[in-house]
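This part of the workshop introduces the protein records we will be handling. Getting from the letters to the tokens is the skill we practise here. The record below serves as our worked example for the rest of this section.

…
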Amino acid sequence: MRRYRYRIVVSGRLGETSRAAFEDLCVEPNDANTGMTGELDQAALHGVLNRILGLGLELVALSRQDDEPNAKRPAPGRDGRV
């Protein structure tokens, strides 16, 4: 399965116990919400969503950060083009 970078935002700030449930993601407070990012395939994404549901958290946003599967991309040149 292909892995993509996802950003997931839940309402509120997660405590230490809740953050531990998402140790496979980068968890960062974002104002009154908490943002989580990580490289996930479809099965892992559904697992994260199930954890959110199981903890009774409110999902605020879910977005895929790139349209291409994670692969090494060439660095852009000085003019910003690849």
Summary: The chain has one domain: 4-64. The mean pLDDT is 87. The chain is about 20% helix and 35% strand.
